[in-house]
Amino acid sequence: MFEIRQIIQRLRMGESARQIARSQHVGRATVESIHSISLTQNWLDPLVQIPDDGTLATFFKTPRKAPQNVSSVESFRDEILKWHAQGINATTMRRALYQKHGFSGSVHALYRFLKHEVPETPQATIKLEFAVGEMAQVDFGMGPVITDRKTGEIAKTWIFVCTLAWSRHQYAEIVRNQSIETWLACHRHAFEWFNGVPKKMRIDNLKSAITKACYYEPTVQRSYGELAIGYSFLIDPCPVEDPRKKGRVESGVKYIKNNFVPLRDFYSVAHGNEQLRAWVMSEAGNRIHGSTRERPLKLFAETEQALLQALPAMAPECATWGKAKLHPNCHIQFDYCSYSAPFGLIGQTLWLEITPHAIRIYRDHELVAIHPRLFKRGDTSSVRDHLPPDAQAYLMRNPQWCLAQAKGIGPACLALVESLFGNRVLDHLRAAQGVIRLRDQYGRRRLEAACARALTFGAPQYRTVKQILSHGLDQQPDLIEILELEAPYRGGGRFNRDPSDLLH
């Protein structure tokens, strides 16, 4: 409207339409049209104020001309709008249109089409500046759907992205979950990818890193805190509900989702990561970045890599931490597996340090047990010394123990115990233990005599020996003399086996 106001002012000063059209670089018809409307509205009177732009716009609004040519992408309208709703960008759309339909138009045609059809509402942001090597920003984004070639099984994934704030070079990895173990492992892989560690890691308030979100003093997850100490970086959580403070990784995640993921096939996580890393080095790292106007990989290689902190001589162990109560059976449960701890800690809540290879159990800061990591559901790792003395004694009373104790009592007792273990149908371990335990009540000599009497009558059983002792029948010497003690009874029933097998 500025030009129209100038023309009205010059008409007030008495200049001709020819003069005005020549100096203003407009047609005489335009000047005459303005002159006609100005006369009608009495705008040429010097005493009348020239109206504001809003009023002028109602009189001189120029209708938009219809496009002379049909856009080259018009025939793909529905497909393009569908892709746009899915978050796919124009570059990826053009590649897909070329592959599917032989589209020869430019990417700018797509930009113009989308700008006309889906106008965007601008959003205000804060521009943050970072020193070289100062910070990396990390986040998870939705990854591709993995379709197993053999089974046809479909599984969703996530993409871990770590973007260096200065150069914009990034590390990306497709993962199956967002667990603490995955979170820690991805950090290690990123540092090894960069061959260095930034001074700060800006993160969102996800549970794998922050146990309690707070604007001023968030609580860091113990496992992540120990990883930060091991690699010498500071954790810098975003303010609560303000993810824009890590906009560079947000842009990185969006860039991968829009440019790498669409219109590709993924048959496994390993297959996806192979494609992703090749794409980062060939395309993402070598594109002209929209903000820096430089190639991220070039900035990283020439400047930022050298200013990152060096990797530690020995990589810190990626351990996760948890808590569990010690059950009365002297075992704690973790991931459907059982691990023993000293019986004196029954009922207490203990710390678990979980690594890919071991489980360490702590009471406060004291290491009380260590076990190899189990992965099969229901498996148990037990240390006998963790059990109370009576339980240890019970576990030690195996067949070999019973035979050794019976031999010390006498040949008749040994023969009876061997007969119990020779049964092919029932496990008589408890019966043998019971026979040996009768020694504590009746003494060795009486137990030996009772076993001899039981063998004489062909009844080598615990309850027979018990009844003989309780009725004092073992003290009848006439029956004891019948037995040839030098030739122990071996039995001969069809359900008996050779007890010597137990000693192998």
Structure description:
The protein is α+β, with helices and mostly antiparallel strands and 504 residues long. The chain has 5 domains: 2-60; 74-117; 135-307, Ribonuclease H-like superfamily/Ribonuclease H (Nucleotidyltransferase, domain 5, 2-Layer Sandwich); 320-388, no CATH class; 397-503, no CATH class. The chain has 19 helices and 16 strands. The protein has a 5-stranded mixed beta sheet with strand order 5-4-1-6-9, sandwiched between helices. It has a 4-stranded antiparallel beta sheet with strand order 10-13-14-15. A 3-stranded mixed beta sheet has the order 11-12-16, with no helix packed on it. α6 packs across α7 (107-117), α14 (399-409) runs parallel beside α16 (429-442) and α15 (411-421) packs across α17. 29% of the residues are buried.
Q: Give unreliable regions as ranges.
A: 479-495
How many beta-strand elements? 16
Number of helices: 19
Biggest beta sheet attributes = 5 strands, mixed
Which CATH-level-2 architecture of the largest domain? 2-Layer Sandwich
Q: Do you know the CATH topology of the largest domain?
A: Nucleotidyltransferase, domain 5
What is the helix fraction of residues, given as a range?
A: 40-55%
Classification by helices and strands: alpha+beta
Structural domains: how many: 5
Query: In the CATH hierarchy, what is the superfamily of the largest domain?
Result: Ribonuclease H-like superfamily/Ribonuclease H
Principal-axes geometry comes out as rod-shaped
Going across the biggest sheet, name each strand in turn: 5-4-1-6-9
Rounded to an integer in angstroms, the radius of gyration calculated over CA atoms is 43 Å
